[in-house]
Amino acid sequence: MEPEGHRGVGMAPGRLLTLADGIFAIAMTLLVLDLRLPDMTSTGAVDLLSRLATLTSRFGTFVISFVVLGVFWFAHHQTFHFVVRVNRTLVWLSVLFFMGVALIPFVASVLGANPTDPIALTLYGGVIGLLTVLGYVVWWYLTGDHGLVVRGLDPTLVRKVRQWIAVGPAIALVAIILAFVNPILSFLIYLALPVLFIAFNPVDSYFERLREGEV
Amino acid sequence: MEPEGHRGVGMAPGRLLTLADGIFAIAMTLLVLDLRLPDMTSTGAVDLLSRLATLTSRFGTFVISFVVLGVFWFAHHQTFHFVVRVNRTLVWLSVLFFMGVALIPFVASVLGANPTDPIALTLYGGVIGLLTVLGYVVWWYLTGDHGLVVRGLDPTLVRKVRQWIAVGPAIALVAIILAFVNPILSFLIYLALPVLFIAFNPVDSYFERLREGEV
Amino acid sequence: MEPEGHRGVGMAPGRLLTLADGIFAIAMTLLVLDLRLPDMTSTGAVDLLSRLATLTSRFGTFVISFVVLGVFWFAHHQTFHFVVRVNRTLVWLSVLFFMGVALIPFVASVLGANPTDPIALTLYGGVIGLLTVLGYVVWWYLTGDHGLVVRGLDPTLVRKVRQWIAVGPAIALVAIILAFVNPILSFLIYLALPVLFIAFNPVDSYFERLREGEV
Amino acid sequence: MEPEGHRGVGMAPGRLLTLADGIFAIAMTLLVLDLRLPDMTSTGAVDLLSRLATLTSRFGTFVISFVVLGVFWFAHHQTFHFVVRVNRTLVWLSVLFFMGVALIPFVASVLGANPTDPIALTLYGGVIGLLTVLGYVVWWYLTGDHGLVVRGLDPTLVRKVRQWIAVGPAIALVAIILAFVNPILSFLIYLALPVLFIAFNPVDSYFERLREGEV
């Protein structure tokens, strides 16, 4: 016998979302710890401006990584908008996804210190690729027959989101291959990720069409 | 066909606010990492009191930055009080705003170590100025015709909040110019920001007038 | 004219509580950053056990500070249980309170490295004292005639909580005075704070009496 | 007289869960701070790949600790799913539990730097053991006659969860004993914890049986 009716149907997504938001907020803010002014003796620079100039590539990696984490947070927010219940498998796929998120400050730090090293670019691309593959698996599992999302979710939206996420691993792969040919181009490829994800966002377009239809 | 009624109208602001509160909480608490007692050998100071004394300007920057982040958090809280829905553009303006928030511990650290250096003061003022400009853009976008805020929001309040936020970039600009003339005065200008924002808070006054009208 | 009814009566305490929980969670977890194994060369210790032994006083400060932050979090939770609305003054008293919370990892670090130094003990006691004084002011303001707490709050409870919080500054003062006479006793006094706050908790007793009365 | 009806019955678990999620999110993300590339001079390694290779055991500890924290978070989520009210004793048992969670980044850091040292393995196993013992005590207290969980909670589920948690201290004890015999095997034992906790999860099975029964 289940106590107090609907409480027992399963676990609501609330706490998984709080954990997700906490991990994203911390990973995004920890990125700034990599921006540390070198002391004067180690660089030989006398004035503050030249010491700040040594942080240029680290600052570039900070900006890209912050925006990339913003992309993943928003994609997480949008796909979990339709979730009504979590189960064991979804929690463990999420924990793996969070592990990738927590690794971003590390790979960003390695890349910021070695911006044109193919190994650093591969490491960064590897974590991004892992996150997009996990995102794909999560969406595929969510929209399977497990009763985790709202009933009657539009199949066209399900397919469009799947195609949208699939662009991620492709970009990561291109960036990794380019790392060994043209490191600077590889670095810039990561900027394409936010642009593509923001410009071609099927969930946002879906809501916009819905609202126009309601008028 | 939209599943389960109102869920599909758009995305509620809940998770964006959780992310915002998380990023503010972490940025505010990370400020303390800059307060580190120097070891005895590097300073030549023998007793604890003189080692603590070396942290004076860092402590001043800690207090100012904590209060400044409090000002931005409260302004964010007050302007988002009227938000009922978020969309893609609002999320990306918010991510840029959060990037500025996450940069505060870095520019505070540079300023704490170089409290009278015009470059450090300019850097600090630049991030504060960026945050106030972004705050202005967010409020302008929110109150535009995008259906993001409550219906029938008082136009006088909308205008007063806009004017209130516009004081921010002006203060930042004055502080940056003063940095090259009188660094200590420039440092003190940042204290004016909390005072002005707290004393002339149109949202709080608006609620107070409303409550008095209800009696 | 106020849009959409009750939304405009004022600001709900939700986000202030999220910020509070975030700052407490981070301050509590940052305490662990002070537990760092010294490298072999700097200590001359060969095995891991003797290197861990150098952390004894830091570990003691970690435990006390974690429990002290737990005390303040629980007191915050209990006093804000009755809050229905926040205003400008309450937000700014809270920001000052949070600044004290964020300083705990710093003063704990100073105390952990100098456990019997009267200055370190005074600094620690000063922040604890500041937090209890701010807690007293917050409770006094909350229960004043500002419409911030639930209607009909039991005046006996209001008075008992006031007396309960007033014990805090007294303990901090005793610990600071003792710091110059008997540092080890001063260190131990901070352990009395959790014990007293846990044993004589008027809010918990109040709920227990209420439930018994309902039977 | 209790103000505004049900508010006074006791304290809802909301804020304790927010604090828990915050502490777990921070502890999980702080693990990454232990992954720091050594500088070239200290290792003698010339290329990035060999410098990354020095982080192998730290990376292994990162993955295990992240998954272990995921296990504890999910167990906390599942057991607190049935909680409707918190009291003083539950809060203080939780604060002790959180202290153990906050210690994980420290013991993980010690283990990552000394992966085959029996002392490091014992320290790690000790904190894991403490967390499982505290988890056992929390569940025992929750399901006692204190009115903290939903009415009519299935006694079979209560017993099964108790047995499930009791496996934890047993695993920790085996790992600690093995640390002095075969350190590598001891290290691997910690991997059994997630596997066992995920595979034999009575709460998830309980929900699955419930849903099948409803069809």
Q: What's the number of helices of chain A?
A: 9
| Shape category of chain A | elongated
Q: Give the strand content of chain A.
A: under 5%
Largest sheet of chain A: none
Oligomer: homotetramer
Q: Count up the domains of chain A.
A: 1
Summarize model confidence as the mean pLDDT of chain A: 86
| Low-pLDDT runs of chain A | 1-8
- Evaluate the radius of gyration of chain A: 20 Å
Coarse structural class of chain A: mainly alpha
Total E-strand runs of chain A: 0
Helix content of chain A: over 70%
Largest interface summary: A-B, 43 and 40 residues
Order of helices and strands of chain A: HHHHHHHHH
Termini separation of chain A (Å)? 46 Å
Description:
Four copies of one chain form a homotetramer. Chain A is mainly α and 215 residues long. Chain A has one domain. Helix content of chain A is 73%, strand content 0%. Chain A has helices at residues 14-30, 40-43, 48-53, 56-80, 88-113, 118-142, 155-179, 183-199, 202-214. The longest helix of chain A has 26 residues, at 88-113. Chain A is elongated. Residues 1-8 of chain A have low confidence and may be disordered. Chains in contact: A-B, A-D, B-C, C-D. The A-B interface holds A 17-18, 21-22, 24-26, 28-33, 35-37, 47-49, 52, 63, 66-67, 70, 73-74, 77-78, 81-82, 150-154, 198, 201, 204, 207-208, 210-211, 214 and B 1-4, 7-11, 15-16, 18-19, 22-23, 25-27, 30, 33, 87-88, 91-92, 95, 98-99, 102-103, 105-106, 109-110, 113-114, 117, 119-120, 123, 147.
